[in-house]
Amino acid sequence: MNSERIVGKSVPRKEGRDKVTGRSQYVDDMVLPNMLFGATVRSRIPRGRIKKITFGGGIAWDEFVIVSAKDIPGKNCIALIGEDQPCLADGVVNHPEEPVLLLAHPDRHVLPKAVEAVSIEYDALPAIFTIEESESRSEIVWGEDNVFKTYLIEKGDVDSVWDEADYIVEGEYATGAQEQLYIENNGMIAAFDAAEGITVWGSLQCPYYIHKALMALCSLPAEKVRVVQMETGGAFGGKEEYPSMIAGHAALLAMKCGKPVKIIYDRMEDMAATTKRHPSRTRLRTAVDKDGKILGGEIEFTIDGGAYLTLSPVVLSRGAIHAGGAYYWPSVRIRAKAVATNAPPHGAFRGFGAPQSLFAMERHMDRMAQAVGISPVEIRRRNFLQPGQATTTEQVVREPIDLGKLLDRALGASDYYGKRERFAKENQLGDFRKGMGIAAFLHGAGFTGSGERYLSSVVGVEGCADGSVLVLVSSTEFGQGTKTVLSQIAAEALGLPYENVSMAQPDTSDVPNSGPTVASRTVMVVGKLVLSAALGIRQTLMSSGLLREGYSTDEFRAACRSYVAAHGQFRSWSRYEAPSDIFWDDQKYRGEAYAAFAWAVYIAEITVDLTTYSVSVDDFVALQEVGKVLHPLLARGQVIGGVAQGIGFSLYEKVVWENGRMQNGQMTNYIMPTSSDLPAIRVLFEELGNVYGAYGAKGIGELPMDGPAPAILNAVVDALGVAFDSVPLLPEDIMDGLAGGVR
Amino acid sequence: MTGSRESHGVVEISFSVNGEAKTVRAHPMERLLDVLRQQLNLTGAKEGCGEGECGSCSVLMDGVLVNSCLVPVLQAAGSSVVTIEGLAAGETLHVLQEAFLECGGAQCGICTPGMILAACHLLEGNPEPTTEEIREGLSGNLCRCTGYSQIVEAVAEAARRRMAA
User: What SS3 state is found at A81?
Assistant: First the structure.
């Protein structure tokens, strides 16, 4: 056996060579014979009844394939949690980007004009666009009360704490929508064949979500729906659910015309019509004693889900469970609510509700520190969760995490005290104000609560005829390193060189359902299954007498070849089983919310320019405990990338809305950070390990999105002495704030 | 721009791509990006925004970094175009490609071809750039995955190797 460790080493990215040479095939690089191009005619009003559709002059309509709701063979919905979202509007529209008709043509250049030539007459209905409008119920736009979902988390007796409190601190915090802004726009190709059924190739995160949606939409059995992931140019949650819609559209066109159809969104359509991060509002009211210890409190967490249910209940759940942060609450009441508006549905984006509620919690920590008259460092230190204590959902912390130690290390790395002392002097003069801000937080890895039990993921590992090893998962690569890390795990388990393991292309006709590629679950949950499936291969070869302990790579390959020659295809499967010590109560919303939490302390150093009111991030220290780091280079890349998106969320990225439509759906007016906007982000790890993850790993992908916004806002407040409680924080907001517009 | 898709608007345009002489038949206003991708099957250049903001369609035209989504193909007539496909010498990677691989400069890979060509252009004009010069030099190419640090490190590493070679 290969004694050299593979896990923990920065081996070359599996698909790296293809990426740096431009050979990787993304969906728009793929061409099928006789392929048509598809486009979507969308509603242009936020809410109403469709009266009439007219196909205008100047267009050779007979050359076009046209699909409406009437052409749908199965159920007109994008099946996910609920079935409320139609694939194509049938008489009613509920947001201004709702798909109404589909067009296809051999020449992609004629499509924009044709889309514009379709005019739709409506009976407009009143529409609502904000959380407050939705709550007022002046107009009911979804269900009976505009409420998609509520959760109540209760611990201890909150009502008794107000009398004992030395301070009662209240705050209201808000976060805006954020566009994922993967550089590859969404795209799909569909082909239909009466015998084979429907096949789609696309840019996507979750092959089996699309598989499920297409079965219902096209009324086809499982074996007649095939979903293949192409190389995917970034996703960040933005390709979790909406690809099911686009796949549905391409499939309907392909079924109607019998030819392959490609739909590629341009940037503006992608930004306007597909999902974004849920806007949120969080109200905190906390009882604190004279030393700054939290006695208890109430948290009200509300998100705007847009026009349809989609994933909002799950986003809400994660946001609610993270709302209490990395702190010990003797008592707490968390009321969470997702409401409907007439905006396109909001959806998954890295962090999935946690960045919203943790922003509020971490801004509120600084507000409590100020009220009590202690430092932001002390307030956190005195309230950190300790091993043995229980979270807001009564999950007892069983690992030896020492958040105080993490905090000290981050403070040291950032020279926090030295810099604050220096800034206190320097801020007296000149046109610049500098500040330091802290965020301490946690992020649960894997699906929330019973989620992993329901998913019941399956993973396969194959010993191939040539003696190599193939990993079969529906977990997708979109930059995070899925292919690389899962290969490392299989190689390590089998004692083989990394090069001996390869990954099957995620193709539902070939790979089992290892669940969606979301929720920081790939390395921890799927990785653990890969490990056990790989061990199954070894065990089979050993027990069949083909392999002995201490085998060499060549001996393994020979054994594998012999096994396949004798028995045919050689695959080992592993299915998720919930650990016996993990239990979650869906009714009471109580218990082990996650098999593991990653922990972090981030510190931002910023400068506010008092002439332009712009904020620059000068230094950023990101320290986290993510279990064992399986691939240091990729892990560091995940953290830096997440922090960069977090800096965008904090200071740059504002979705401008008008009547439910995004007005700035271009890269020229929706601004993400460039290389010259960002500092060198400093990444530090603590490694405690994790018994539930492969080789001690926890999830890492989403965690870095949670910390930057509160750390940066806390730093701006430190620099200016004026409270800012919402992101994005743009120069004009700072100007207004300094003029006294902010309380 | 006539917007006409009639064949009488189509002209023959010759230019060199990755050292090979090419002649294409295209409308003069057709985007160089589309000609490269659809006619010449060079799909390494990607469309990210279609308006010259993201840089993922970057190619070198007579040594100048251009957004091929903003270049009418007529403008490329007689020029020498280099795309990502022209960078490696057979199976031997260009020093920037190697450095991107080793330093984690490519994650999802969609910005990578443009980013590497932008870096190539930067190093041609400034073989020993400082970190700030690299950050400034690549600021026309957007990357959503990496937060840029590992790209900047890759370019600095490539510069070191070039100077040492």
Answer: coil
